[in-house]
Amino acid sequence: MVxxxxxxxxxxGAGADAATEQMTALESLVRRAVREQPVWDFHTHLYxxxxxxxxxxxxxxxxxxGLMLWGIDELLTYHYLVxxxxxxxxxxxxxxxxxxxxxxxxxxxxxxKHLFLERSPISEACRGVLTTLQRLxxxxxxxxLQGYRGWFAQQDPNRQIDRVMEIAGVSRIxxxxxxxxxxxxxxxxxxxxxGADSRFAAVLRFDPLxxxxxxxxxxxxxWGYPVGPTLDDEGVExxxxxxxxxxxxxxxxYCAVSLPPxxxxxxxxxxxxxxxxxxxIVAPVLEETNMPLALMIGSKRGxxxxxxxxxDMVGLADVASVARICADLPRNRLFCTMLARxxxxxxxxxxxxxxxxxxxxxxxxxxxxxxxxxITRMRVELLGVSFxxxxxDARVLDQLIYKWDHSRELIANVLVDKYRDVAAxxxxxxxxxxxxxxxxxFHDNMxxxxxxx
Length: 453
Ligand code: RAT
Ligand code: ZN
What we know:
The chain is α/β, with parallel strands linked by helices. The protein has 19 helices and ten strands. The longest helix is centred in the last third of the chain and has 25 residues. Bound molecules: D-arabinaric acid (RAT) and zinc ion.
């Protein structure tokens, strides 16, 4: 910015006009490239209709425990908004249990009333609902919740997936397939084609393996993989067999865990059960299946369990542990994101040291405009184009629209400044080069890292 400004100011007259024109052209090129590049969404909690949907819209057959969430009531009851509404409604007026006893539509009415009508919807999660409605062709200015409900009720969930992907510019959606979730596991066991929708890719998620071994061991044993509370050679073999079976059943493209801020890994001699499971079970299977592991670190689960999914807190993670894993397991590849703002710089520096580490996304509490801007700038400065700037973490299909609209705008702002800075030196990026870079950010870095041995 500073350099380009100086050059423009000193050029004067016609020269200055030409330089300004070039910069404007560069800016529109970058914005167009970011707008038009389809994105492979690295991490979501979305599912195709084969997993059932509690709200069937115009299609037949609602499944109350279905996993495909979409529509206005799901948008309004997103756990980010649940957490926000409890802040503004006094406990005596609405105890937690009373809220959870309401139907989904009653909860949505409650959130609409308190967060949209009785105060302005200017938080990022509230604004997201408005962006989504607007881009679906509904007018948020109408403030007509019943009207929006009517529109969604006429849609077919399967066709809504295509529509949303088209509007959001998403070419592929990556799921989070939690093998320790009974509802989801059962669906995989009952229907081997449940994950066969080509718009979606599966990811095997197994937090309890690393976070709660006694619980994981009991479940594995129950499922026919006998393992004990301490890890002997037989347990290691059974754990590996479990992972191999589920990777193959789900056709997962990578495996993933969310870890608490307290997660530590101290090196090859570390005897913590989580370190042993990582080194002896997870790492060897992922190496053999040529698959990366995604680590999402920094979520303190359930500091307020009354909020359910919205009750988790953020904590500072130990980046040095991630660096040690990268060093100790050079034949494994790690995707990594962290929840605390304060971890972002150290994590980007760690990625400069280890090419088996791919930083991704602005996760959850850092998925806010001011922080996306700050984090993305810092990452470009330290890592150039070698990271994955964003994932949506969408839980409700339609959220893909706002998550990507908002992030594209912010990523484009950063890139405009960065290309301007290099253009000011006389290095003029071509349109093809800009499009190549944006493709790396939105697709190829993920694809290449998944594929590379
Ligand atoms: O961001 C979220 O919606 C969280 O609730 C979690 O899903 C988190 O992203 C996770 O994957 O654990
Ligand atoms: Zn998530």
